[in-house]
Amino acid sequence: MASRSVKKILVVGGGTAGWMTAAYLARWLENTNIQVALIESEQIGTIGVGEATVPGIHQFIRDLDIKESEFIRATNATFKLGIEFSGWAGEGQHFFHPFGGYGVPIEDRSFHKTWWSAKNQGYALGLDKFSLCTQLARAGRFAQPSFEPESSLAWYSYAYHFDASLFAKFLRSYAEQRNVTRIEGKVNHIQLDASSGFIQSVTMESGLVVESDLFIDCTGMPALLIHKTLGVGYEDWSKWLLCDSALAVQTKSAAEPDPFTRSSARTAGWQWHIPLQHRVGNGYVYSSQFTSPEQAHRELLGNLAGELTTDPRLIHFTTGMRRDFWYKNCVAIGLSSGFLEPLESTSISLIQTGIAKMAAFLVNFEINETRVAEANRLNRLEYERVRDFIILHYKLNGRSNPFWQHVREMAIPASLEEKIASFRASGDIKEEEQESFKADSWISMFYGLGLAPQGLAPLADPEKAPAILNNMAGAIAKGCHYASSHADFLKTLGN
Ligand SMILES: Cc1cc2nc3c(=O)[nH]c(=O)nc-3n(C[C@H](O)[C@H](O)[C@H](O)COP(=O)(O)OP(=O)(O)OC[C@H]3O[C@@H](n4cnc5c(N)ncnc54)[C@H](O)[C@@H]3O)c2cc1C
Predict the structure, then answer these.
(1) N or C terminus: fewer CB in 10 A for the chain?
(2) So which residues are the catalytic ones?
(3) Which residue in 435, 477, 411 sits closest to 128, CA to CA?
């Protein structure tokens, strides 16, 4: 196929994916003649959830050249240092997945190996004490990390919790100020070019026909363009990720916002708690094979701290990915390209990396089959790596009721089997191509869920290590002490 030139781009859908794409394109194409338009339907609306992020979001804010304080004010955002997992390793147990590392290597040995060997020889302090990010979160404190910390003990990152509807509104205004044309209404027909099979135009309910060269499918789960029109199938991963439903509800804040997301294990899934400045987002993600909507409703309402401000809303989903996120002249971004359940807040990040891949492989603003194939290969790898990381949370759980037993005993992808086996044997974590979660994330999950390496050599000098470890923990405790409370930090930004 010869390359096809792109002079017009049409985004169909105005949820988080649609407006993130439109805003990015607006900025990227500012000095070109390429036109960008977005169609959205108020009547259909958006999914309205998706409020926790991962640190990659900074790249998006930088790409758009937005000031962080402006973004935080506009979206009522709070800071997120990681996720607290309660009850996953067993009733009453907690661990933290921080956006940062643990300790520093001692004599060229990975920190966690030294710590675990010391622990086996009687050392008392837990892994959490060696993560500044975790210590800040546990103390309800926040400080902006230094770009060039004096010690790698001080290295960590952070993300945000924000109001999804305010985020879309903010991006809409950004995009419209940069010449993105918004078209209100419902698309009800899509025309294909008979010879190439490319999308030619979409027809709106009003009769308006909108032509374009490249179409971005941001229509959410229905995937109107990539699936319903072009027939690109979906790879269903629900045999590994059993949760298929969520009840979402908002409450008033009952306390100062935590600088982290809470994920608490429940009977047939888990509950999220996402604190914003003005309210809290809550939800119960569960498997409909193991509980009913009525039981889930009762369980969710029985575990909320603040007064309800919305009615619980039931959302169904199928975890998995679109076989190709880019097909002919259509790119699927957002829920139309797949969904891996919200356990590690990865959807918005996958939107971002989807946009980045589209931009990187649209060389000279031309659609080229070879490049499209490479973009699809990378996208698949990225999804599979995230999938494995999320399955790990379930596979190593320490709970006893039927859902949790089932997910502990289920067969898992070979790629994840290998990762678990390698860590169990030697404490090594092999970083794969397109891996979103780096070694420290895997370390936090393995130890947090009770898996430790079996074959580590004992410390050569067991007298020396505790003093070095204590020094590190002491420095972290001191660093944490200097940070202000999360609530006070937000006030310094004018919130
Ligand atoms: C329970 C749950 C919790 C989640 N939590 C998180 C989280 O914490 N963090 C995270 O990163 N992600 C999370 N996600 C995912 C996140 O919500 C989505 O990735 C994000 O909102 C993007 O959605 P979207 O824009 O693809 O789809 P939608 O929000 O569904 O938007 C679809 C858009 O397409 C338009 N549309 C559809 N059909 C037509 C048509 N025929 N004509 C015109 N317009 C049309 C709609 O009007 C709408 O504007 C969560 C998802 C679920 C289900």
Answers:
(1) N
(2) 80
(3) 477
